[in-house]
Every structure is written in structure tokens, then in C-alpha cells.
């Protein structure tokens, strides 16, 4: 169901629990049509601050 607060609730859980439970954490938005490499780049970029030169395999290993 659209617009019922899924993202708001998930972000609250992320901010209040996930961030304090895990050293490494990343918040990314995935759309119905998504690009796997772009998703991995966003996660690894958040975690390490760098990513562009890595292969998909390297990105997946980090994640
Ligand atoms: N508990 C709440 N009380 C009042 N307003 C809320 C509450 N939770 C979310 N909202 C508001 O409702 C709107 C939709 O919230 P949100 O974007 O989290 O929904 P969603 O289910 O993720 O939507 P979508 O299906 O489009 O991704 C936002 O304007 C948000 O601020
Ligand atoms: Mg949403």
C-alpha cells in the first residue's frame, strides 16, 4: 500500500536501532526498477567513502 508510512517507520528503526547496533550501516533507496551496481556503489560509498574503481565482485565482497 502506498503512502502509509513504511519509509518513515523504517527510517526511525534505522536511526534509533540499526545505527547504534552496527559499526557500518548505509541507508539507500531502491526503486522498483533498480541497477544492482548502482545500489552496491551507494552502499560501499557510504561505508568506505570510495568505490568507483571496484568491480561488482569487489563491491559485493565488501557488502
Ligand atoms: N505516524 C505518522 N503520522 C503522521 N504522518 C505520518 C506518519 N508516518 C508517516 N507520515 C507521513 O505520511 C507520508 C508518507 O510517509 P512515507 O513516505 O513513510 O510512506 P511510504 O509508505 O513509504 O510511501 P510510499 O509507498 O510512497 O513509499 C509522509 O508525508 C510522512 O511524513
Ligand atoms: Mg516509501
Automatic annotation (TrEMBL):
- The organism sits in which domain of life? Eukaryota
InterPro entries per UniProt: NB-ARC (IPR002182), P-loop_NTPase (IPR027417)
Q: Which residues form the signal peptide?
A: none
Gene3D superfamilies named in the record: P-loop containing nucleotide triphosphate hydrolases
Name any one GO molecular function.
Answer: ADP binding
Domain NB-ARC residue range list: 1-55
Q: Which Pfam families match?
A: NB-ARC
Q: What is this protein called?
A: NB-ARC domain-containing protein
Which organism's genome codes for this protein? Solanum verrucosum
The taxonomic lineage of its organism, from the top, reads: Eukaryota, Viridiplantae, Streptophyta, Embryophyta, Tracheophyta
